[in-house]
Design a protein that fits this description.
alpha/beta, about 350 residues, globular, seven-stranded parallel beta sheet, Rossmann fold, six-stranded parallel beta sheet
């Protein structure tokens, strides 16, 4: 079987991390199938069964719907894996899709855009239509959490048998030298409005360290004396930032999985997070939960970090064994095989 993977987001955070780990693990466990990875930038194939195909087509663009299907079709694939919600609906072949969350449907606000508001709403409606058509056309759908699976069934009337929940994974990180001298609370991720960072900023005057790509949304945040914008961090820096933080703070109004919470927890760092389904699913009793619309509830947790629950060594090992990229790849490969037969 020849399988294509849309890897245009491979160098991004979030979905990019998912794609990188999926490819790395498939390269080890799959000795039979051949793969073509479609990328915008340079990518070194992991072994001889993997080929790289140039697809310098921006995501969230008209070309993604018009030109990209032609690129995919030219490879004569048996199966295509789209790891993101903007599915190229005119692709004529068989495909599966991974959906990480449905944030775009819940927070269609003009704040989360560089476009004029009227054009943004047109784009949101287009996303909704493309997603609905794509999900119904897909041979199968992978959801990264039960929370997202429930959302998919509620919004799109999908048969539950069409959706497999395959959790993301986590790797143990090394905690290197301390990068921030003073005590700090850590946030890792982008600064889109549903991340609720304004509430976090209002909740404390203690040191906050934000890790993420310095884009327009980060630049809109206030430059206060207690805020350090670290920028993007590599795995070594991230491990150190997690390990030495008083806590990771994750105040999102909605998440599909919440990988930084898991990465912090397996290092034994306390996690302060919104009381939303995805975090409950991943962290269970090991999270320090608060109502993400209640600034005083978050302030109370930040005021007394010594009282926060932190994962024990046994709990860290349990998380490491329950959420692995190898298991994710094995279950994804099973979906590939079943979709190809179906």
């Amino acid at each position: 079987m020849k399988i294509g993977i849309d890897g245009r987001l491979i160098n991004e955070t979030g979905v990019g991390r998912y794609i990188r780990n999926l490819i790395a693990e498939l390269a080890v466990i799959d000795k039979e199938n051949r793969y073509a990875v479609f990328v915008r930038d340079e990518f070194i194939p992991p072994n001889e069964r993997w080929e790289v195909r140039r697809a310098d087509i921006p995501w969230h663009s008209v070309a993604e719907q018009v030109e990209l299907p032609k690129v995919f079709a030219g490879e004569h694939l048996d199966l295509l894996h789209i790891p993101y919600f903007t599915i190229p609906i005119f692709y004529p072949g068989k495909f599966i899709a991974t959906i990480h969350d449905l944030t775009i449907l819940h927070f269609p606000t003009g704040k989360a855009t560089t476009l004029p508001v009227s054009l943004y709403w047109v784009k949101v409606l287009a996303y909704r239509l493309i997603l609905e058509i794509g999900l119904h056309r897909a041979a199968h759908i992978i959801s990264v959490s039960h929370a997202t699976r429930e959302e998919l069934m509620d919004h799109f009337a999908l048969d539950e048998r069409k959706i497999s929940v395959i959790h993301e994974g986590v790797r143990g990180m090394k905690s290197g030298k301390r990068l921030i001298k003073e005590p700090y609370f850590l946030y890792v991720g982008n600064a889109y409005p549903h991340k609720n960072l304004e509430l976090l900023i209002r909740a404390t005057d203690k040191q906050l360290v934000f890790v993420g790509k310095e884009d327009l949304f980060y630049k809109r945040l206030p430059r206060l004396p207690n805020i350090t914008f670290f920028g993007q961090a590599n795995d070594e820096e991230l491990g150190s930032l997690y390990a030495h933080a008083q806590a990771l703070v994750f105040p999102s109004l909605m998440e599909g999985f919440g990988l930084p919470a898991l990465e912090a927890a397996v290092l034994g760092t306390p996690v302060i997070c919104s009381d939303i389904p995805a975090f409950r699913e991943v962290l269970g009793p090991q999270g320090n939960y608060f109502n993400p619309r209640d600034v005083s509830a978050l302030r109370a947790l930040l005021t007394h970090p010594e009282n926060l629950k932190k994962p024990s060594k046994e709990e860290q090992q349990e998380l490491l064994s329950r959420f692995t990229w190898r298991q994710m790849a094995e279950k994804t490969l099973q979906v590939y095989n079943e979709a190809n037969v179906g």
